[in-house]
Design goal:
single chain, alpha+beta, FAD/NAD(P)-binding domain, 2 domains, nine-stranded mixed sheet, eight-stranded mixed sheet, 20 strands, 27% strand
Length: 437
């Protein structure tokens, strides 16, 4: 990393950067959504069409490895396809644990179904990656790659003021620097500062559930199998990790979470064993536990004047079926496509037409994924006897008839919503030249 970049990451800004306060795009949030957006814009636009990009990141996290307690996300096969198009998957391959089977069961009831990769002609159903590994990978690539000299980090920093003008957005940072751009992208999470400053309305749904997250080791190997087990209080997920670990997301009634968090490790493992069963043998070790309330937080619009929202800033979902990040990555892919088309057509990248096309391209996917997630929460967190019988019959039938579970599987794979294929503009230009000849 160059000395100049070292200064940027330490929150210092040299005179050259101070003088260059005007950008094409400001991305607020340098996490997975924001960093992937910045990388993807460069990958698709190339040097010829490169935009000047500012990334504002409040965290001072150096992405040091969290060891046994590392947090994870599940990438769908569709997310893998997006990362392949952006030239990132080859870097992720060594970091991920493949999911080669998903087992869905209903505790104390007969219903069960399995989703297998061969049913959908794929090698794996998805992949689990540790957030620390992903964060380090993206930060290193954006800060050291020769093709990313057009990216300026403002870190650690945050937005203090935001003003929308007819042709630009002006931002005052926490250290009183002033920067502007044609477009600002909110990639700053469920409690987005950009969304708050612009008074973008949101709809919050309370599920009366909280989640406990922990990493677990088991006496039997997971062999890449993921488990989604529905209990009378909410879903319990086990995701396969490296070194024989499994990442657990245990949803339960919020009034119960404090008691479970107060258990010692042995008591916690015994309670978890009772809820999960013995499909992975005995639960032998738990890491640090973290809990948080589960809410659905959805912005009323993906866009505002010269503003686009992606990822959790646009919609934060219940973790059931692991749809949240994958939906956000599809936001990122759609925005990259709309911006790249605007650039090649010499349009204003922050203009109304560009942002309205982005909004329209995301509305169906967002609505259907949110509805599917909410419906699963309602369906499998309900002990009403007729509903229990109906859902178990549906699970059992779907295990026999692949056609019945195809919609659920395709939603998990990220295939239910077609996205335009992302290709570097240099490829499109050379193809056009050959056709014209």
């Amino acid at each position: 990393m160059t000395a100049e970049l070292d200064k940027e990451f330490n929150g210092e800004v040299n005179d050259e950067i101070k003088a260059n306060k005007s950008f094409d795009v400001i991305i607020n949030g340098g996490g997975m959504a924001g960093a992937t957006l910045a990388w993807g814009l460069n990958a698709i636009l190339g040097k010829e069409y490169a935009l000047n990009i500012a990334i504002i990141e409040a965290s001072v996290d150096d992405h040091s490895h969290a060891g046994f307690d590392a947090r994870v996300i599940a990438l769908s096969y569709g997310s893998r396809q997006i990362l392949e198009q952006l030239g990132l998957w080859k870097d992720y391959e060594s970091l991920v644990t493949p999911i080669n089977k998903i087992s869905i069961t209903d505790r104390h009831h007969f219903g069960h179904t399995n989703i297998l990769p061969e049913e959908h002609n794929v090698d794996n159903l998805g992949y689990v990656v540790e957030l620390s590994d992903s964060g380090r990978l993206l930060t290193n690539k954006l800060s050291s790659n020769e093709n990313n000299k057009n990216i300026t980090w403002f870190k650690p920093n945050s937005i203090k003021e935001l003003t929308q003008n007819q042709d630009s957005v002006d931002v005052v940072l926490s250290d009183d620097q002033c920067i502007s751009a044609k477009l600002i992208v909110a990639a700053d999470g469920a409690f987005s500062k950009v969304r708050s400053l612009l008074n973008i309305d949101k709809k919050i749904t309370q599920f009366n559930q909280s989640a406990i997250i922990a990493n677990i080791t088991t006496s039997a190997p997971h062999h890449g199998e993921a488990f989604e087990r529905f209990t009378d209080q909410g879903p319990l997920a086990f995701l396969p990790m490296s070194q024989g670990r499994s990442s657990v997301v245990w949803s339960m009634n919020s009034q119960c979470v404090d008691d479970v968090m107060a258990l010692n490790d042995d008591e916690f493992l015994a309670r978890l064993q009772q809820a999960f069963g013995f499909r992975l043998g005995t639960l032998t070790k738990t890491g640090k536990r973290v809990s948080y309330p589960l809410i659905q937080n959805v912005a009323n619009s993906h866009t505002h004047h010269r503003t686009a929202l992606v990822g959790n800033a646009s919609q934060a979902l219940h973790p059931i079926a692991g749809q949240g990040f994958n939906l956000g990555l599809r936001d990122v892919a759609a925005l990259i496509h709309q911006i790249s088309q605007a650039v090649i057509n010499k349009q204003d990248i922050g203009g109304h037409n560009v942002l309205s096309h982005y909004q329209k391209s995301r509305s169906d996917d967002q609505a259907q994924t949110i509805n599917a997630t909410s419906s699963l929460v309602s369906l499998f967190s309900n002990s009403h006897f007729p509903l229990v019988i109906a859902r178990n019959a549906a699970l059992q039938l779907s295990d026999c008839l692949t056609v019945l579970k195809k919609p659920v599987a395709e939603q998990m794979l990220g295939w239910r919503h077609n996205l335009p294929r992302l290709k570097p503009l240099s490829d499109a230009k050379s193809s056009t030249s050959r056709v014209s000849q």
